[in-house]
Design a protein that fits this description.
The protein is an alpha/beta fold. It is 51% helix and 19% strand.
Length: 280
Amino acid sequence: MKISFVVPTRNSGRTLAACLGSLRSQTHAEVEIVVVDNGSTDATVAIGERFADQVLQWGPERSAQRNHGTKCSTGDVVVFIDSDMVMEPTIAADIARTFEASPATGALVIPERSFGDGFLAHCRELEKSLYVGDPAVESPRAFRRELIEDLGGWDENLTAAEDWDLADRTRAVATVGRVTSYIWHDEGRIKLRATFAKKRYYGRWIDQYVSMHADSNTKFARTALVRKPGALLRHPVLTAGLVALKATEAAGLLLGVRDSRSASPAGSSSAGASRDSRVA
């Protein structure tokens, strides 16, 4: 079974070598790496050419990049990976073994943990550990080719919550399983001001997602944060930092939703153009 990893990029030079190196080091023999860049101005393309089977140029956003990568890939399974993620070496083998053992399964969740520099990154590590196994948070990343094609791929009208949308559509028509190997997300150094700005931008699309999915409130509740009080009590300082981090994110999202509701269609279009110029 051939596994195609599709990695959208834009100015991902800080993290891309570790990401692609972990994909090239998989224990499974049949692995294809497809990098879909969006006009990077740093070393991203050169790094991609060192590791990947294909380095493509496509845009304007990551959903479109993922769909183009799916179209150009050749694997029986398509796995969508972000450029700041590092894979454990057994992920591809776990995916192949799980699909082969369960023909009725159409997609797979790959559990995710994180690492990074500084206090807030450690707070995020705690948060991610609480989400493992929570179906309201985890979304499938590995798809049988026929399923992702039947679903029509990623919704290219969504710049945020596109993973929730795809997960909702997937679970409505297919069985979703999981593997035991982990993805490790490189958070770098988290800064509250940048986090607020990022969430405010993404909030513009959250309103659109909510209008499309009546049960979307479960995605925002993050009940795993309160269902495991023991983990929080064991780390009171990190928990306090996590509360501050989540409050900052919530404020950014709410302001982004307000921006979306008050913006004219023309304003929304210009916002999308601005997004294209700065984020993968």
